[in-house]
């Protein structure tokens, strides 16, 4: 048995045994419930026989089976539900009393002349209530009890009544004890607490028998008092005694019944049926720590699984997987306790080793000098009297162990697994992917879970709490508040129990955060288990905004909320359901430094969108989150409302009133409204030392050790790998001294071929490394051929011995290895950005030397997700709708008047493998037209159900962007930003010809006024931006605007005012001008990053690249609304449609057709329209 156990394990086992001390002590005074004037307590008047004024409870409390609303506190160690008689009627009598009593220590107590104090209060403090709930759970594990109110009474340093004579001196014995009554509308529990050294006298002498040397033991327990019997008589009610003699009184602090000496718990009342008091049954006895603990070896043979028993943990931090308050484990075996009692990081001297006698000595205090490697590289370490804590550096937030740059967006990756029962069908989720993207600057969290099968995809739509975790973690912080990541960091466990009503289905959600990966992204594992209500396929789910109150304790955060959701389906119409969410979040809390004063915070969840895309099998949640103190803030600065125009990689800093500043996040540069990543590696700003290399990350960087090296004790310095093994002599003689030596040994892991087929394996002492072969990219375990961008980047990085020259430009590649469409380069002297094509070549006229980044559009579509949805049309609803391009799809946003009906937003057409940029609508044939930058095509599709796309132009296109329909002349116009042309063709693609191919640098938007036959377009050439016009046949070309513009991305024709309007991402203004060049005016001056725009009625609607949504602005300069699609990505072109369906019989077009560039054509004379409309109404009633 012992031969199998290696000597290093035996040594560690002995050391662990020597450290294991099962020392159970009574509760300390500072650990009883908080009390005193500071906490709002009332102090009872000094005296020998005093009774408090009545305390009227805010909610009734059940004592036994009766409801009471009044409580009285008496000097003599009792609480009653009625005013007390004089003490001589009860203090020297036996137990029970004839009136209701809760007696933690009934005796003749005296507080006169400053001999102690008595405090009491009723409270609804979340801290008190949650602690009481946890204490009840310890004593009654099966009870479901959540207190809503509590009453606390504390007798502090009180004395026994004494009759002092000349021959005697006052006694110095004093007692301290406490009672806590926790209750809700149904149950009441009582806690009696007797701290260590809190009971120094155990009874008092009767006043009338003072010449007799007797002492009455204190009476502890509960009595209902006398009850009415028949009509005129009374009988003794039920009672319960805890003590009977002096020894039983001493047991009050020597024992306990919930696992801790000095703490006693009783169930004392119930609304429905209650016979008598029920005590908790987890008895604990006070013990002393033995000076020596004999070592006992386990009887079992040592196996590999035993290694888990010896994993070290940091004793300064609680186990993040704990779901309840920590408590002593009386029945735990010695080995089970080892894991919790081995301090981390003690220096062990194991050579030579004597297994019979082990001498261990170390300074138990852990300091920054020895353990600062546990802090983030973006944190500093601080020593305190009992240990150290990590604190994030300026410009970063987190718990010190994990820190992220302020204001920078964040990503979360993970897996989802488990079994979910839907309507009797069990659906297995086998580690499917979860991805989340959070815009920290305004608290928007987007979560997508892929490969979700039916029917669980529909059924999980209400489960926004799955993605709600990320909203809480990175919520927008209101004043005097902290989001979740600032408290927990990147290691925690969240348990959420969801109960649905009225069906009582229950779903358990366990989400475990496992730190930050090598890209600084959070890794979270999600486990789902239970049942959820069935939701019909094709249904939609609507969740209204709501608030949730979070309660904070050391290492624990809890909340309970009830939420409503509405299911809208063709089968059942609109149905409203509710579910309750009870959750706790456990994490590692450093208990050495200053404690946070947080008790409660309110999480406000707004703009909640949920969607299941059947064709893609993707479940999406989108929530906007803010966290702050309870209650509504009075003055909301734009930083807190999210209505600022700071970059998504910037922090909004509130100033006085409605003013604010935009400050680029740490690791980014710019003016705050436009920021770009700083490559610390290329600019020589990294902190990497010898034998390490730098990896740039968004907003930060990471140092990696070279092959054959690993981080040393400080977590920052790379040193050669050393693996130690023990070689012992006479090791079979367990109880005789043996001599052990340290020897170096190594296993060649490369023999097992652990690397990818296109990777090389390099063995090193104690480890190995996989490296992709030349021409391949990856981590060595997965390799793919390098793309052009990766080859370009790596050649520059390796040109100087693997270290790029300081100040040299290194191209940035995306996750798929393609050139990022926007490339930036900066140094301490200058910085600038420009656009590149798919081959990395700079697009002329795009270089920006100011803080405004150019609006670069990708030319390579993102990777295709399978299975692909059918590329057919789902028509928009009846009425007016906005259409917007969003990468690989065209979205629909219905309008109710001019208000956006966000709940009915949908996808008109899914176009995987495309990058849809320009979009317009032909109101005569009800067809939508769009340009595809990835496919280099122009296509169209009818808005009839099931219609499929039709490519009309697929040759000689390079970068087709804006396009426009002339409904009167049946012509199509578009711009090509690479070939620098403006072309036109018939709507079927025939009769194609070039209108302009000179004096164009970066043409983008184009509109047509069909009434006058005039074209307008923008050219955002960074050197000389302009807006031009001409006739539709290419005549009369002229510059309309060239002064005071920067990035005129968006252009529209406002048919109401008959002006040309543009939105500028450089000047942040929306301006309009008459076609003759007069009447220029600023409509709005605080835009964010507009890309495309359309005018309708008295509103402008534009797509915004910072908000990644559709923004509505009224003509009176007020921002009215915004729509943030659940799937986060840039939005491009926008237009709108209007078609009216009367009684599903007749489709009619009114006197004008509303498209991207409104045109007025009389398709049906207005009087005919009115006549037919009247006839239809007469026919159908």
Automatic annotation (TrEMBL):
The chain crosses the membrane at residues 1146-1174. Residues 364-404, 635-676, 677-719, 746-782 form the EGF-like domain. The keyword Glycoprotein applies. One of its GO terms (cellular component) is plasma membrane. Keywords: Basement membrane, Calcium, Cell adhesion, Disulfide bond, EGF-like domain, Extracellular matrix, Glycoprotein, Membrane, Repeat, Secreted, Signal, Transmembrane, Transmembrane helix. InterPro entries: 6-blade_b-propeller_TolB-like, Cueball_EGF_LRP_Nidogen, EGF, EGF-like_Ca-bd_dom, EGF-type_Asp/Asn_hydroxyl_site, EGF_Ca-bd_CS, G2_nidogen/fibulin_G2F, GFP. Its main location: secreted. It holds the Pfam family Thyroglobulin_1. Residues 408-637 form the Nidogen G2 beta-barrel domain. Residues 1-26 form the signal peptide. SMART domains: EGF, EGF_CA, G2F, LY, NIDO, TY. This is Nidogen 2. It comes from Cyprinus carpio carpio.
